[in-house]
Design goal:
The protein is mainly beta. Strand 3 and strand 4 form a beta hairpin. The chain has a four-stranded antiparallel sheet with strand order 1-2-3-4, with no helix packed on it. The chain is elongated, with a radius of gyration of 18 Å. The structure holds zinc ion. The site of zinc ion has 9 residues, from loops.
Length: 65
Amino acid sequence: MTTVFSTTIESEGYELEQTVTTVECPSCRGCAIHRFYESAEGGSINAFTVIHCEQCDYYRERCVR
Ligand SMILES: [Zn+2]
């Protein structure tokens, strides 16, 4: 006989952060968008930074936690 526990982690009431700033593109020195955001995955909060340049298509996503 197997007992199965079901666990639910509530994410209600937690505000996920997102910040968008403009930075210099590391690739073409143009104007790139830097986005910092948090993502709730598997019950834990992960933070990511994304640098995206629309001029040269540079894209880099990084986990910072
Ligand atoms: Zn660029």
